[in-house]
Amino acid sequence: MPFPTKAYAAAAPGVALAPYSLERRDVGPNDVHLKIKFCGICHSDLHLVRNEWNFGALFPMVPGHEIVGVVQSVGGAVTKLKEGEIGAVGCLVDSCRSCEYCIDNEEQHCPKPTYTYSAIGADGKPTYGGYSTDIVVDERFICKVPDALKDQLAGVAPLLCAGITSWMPMVYHGMNKPGKKIGVIGLGGLGHMAVKFGVAFGSEVTVISTSEGKREEAMKVLGASQFINSKDPKQMASMSGTLDFVLDTVAVPKDMNLYVQLLKPRGVLATVGAPPPTYSFQIAPMAMILGSKMVAGSAIGGLKATQEMLDFCGEKGITAMVEVIKMQEVNEAYERMVRADVRYRFSIDMEASAL
Ligand code: NAP
Ligand code: ZN
Ligand code: ZN
After folding, report:
1. Nearest to residue 340, comparing CAs of 213, 165, 230?
2. Half-sphere exposure at residue 90, Cβ-oriented, CA atoms within 13 angstroms
3. Is 192 in the pocket of ligand 1 (CB under 6 A)?
4. How does pLDDT run across 174-215, given as a tens digit for each residue?
5. In angstroms, rounded to a whole number, what is the distance separating the alpha carbons of residues 182 and 243?
6. Taking burial as the number of CB atoms within 10 A of a residue's CB, which of 145, 171, 258, 332 is the most buried?
7. pLDDT average, residue stretch 90-109
8. Is the dihedral of CA 81, 87, 93, 97 positive or negative?
9. Ligand 1 in contact with 44 (CB < 6 A)?
10. Has residue 124 got a pLDDT over 90?
11. ∠ CA(189), CA(339), CA(217), 5° rounding?
């Protein structure tokens, strides 16, 4: 039987989130029902709630795609997880499963993806995300949280988007081996995960930030080797031609030429920050030609890679650094996120929120 679920939703673009009730589907043979413990707040939630991407966002919208929970029940055909185990859901809850990308475990590139919220599922109904007490998802789209992380679930939730989105371009571009020099633009949810992964891979990581106040923590706690303030042209110039790879997690206009010039010859700048489509950046072709440099994009990650990332985090003891909040504090959290005032991810404690 479909069952009622408490949630928080935005009723229309840009309005404050407020309590909302929805129905989750009956647990089918391939489904897993998670009782949600924590849900991270991604900057994409804010872009979508404010309809900044012009993607035909659906309202009422229950955001949330960084979900961890305890398996409450499973359908008869489920083999991946058992009742009582910890499961996790990211940005996708379905895809066509038959295209070349789905077959290749790159569901994020499927032409018919079903996003965790603000999408229409195969049953023709809107999807609702993790700012809710329960979720029912097909087992293909659930990952298993390693036992080693089961007592740190607030910090595990953000791995499902901030983690995999930083991980994927680092892996695509061969940064998951020691001795690389990596730059990370923006020390927010995605950026701080990129720093943690870079350090764990054995790289020298340089944080490139607009927030001088994050310097000490970036180096002493997150393990960055260097911190440069992007507002200071001298500090930027001092790093010219030194980096193998730069990950751009910032979604505000900036002069990309300044970042391309940080790359060594054959270096790669991968961008994941997702500003509104009205913004586009300009790069002088010569800035890329001299040094045969590359500029790339990257979108989240597939389910297989997400499980590999989680397993790596389990082995290395990596979780996101989070500020745990209650659901009722979400609107204030959004305002703080816009001001880059979060160290470094909000994680909503669903049980403590007592919806
Ligand atoms: P976040 O936690 O808000 O971090 C963004 C960071 O940008 C801030 O911490 C800040 O770092 C920096 N920043 C620089 N100038 C800023 C300004 N004027 N105002 C605000 N912040 C500024 O965001 P996030 O969750 O990491 O997400 C970052 C971007 O990636 C978003 O656009 C999000 O939608 C996108 N995203 C993309 C994908 C994908 O698949 N490609 C997946 C998830 C998210 P400093 O203080 O260090 O400067
Ligand atoms: Zn996200
Ligand atoms: Zn597909």
Report:
1. 213
2. 29
3. no
4. 999 999 999 999 999 999 999 999 999 999 999 999 999 999
5. 6
6. 145
7. 98
8. negative
9. yes
10. yes
11. 50
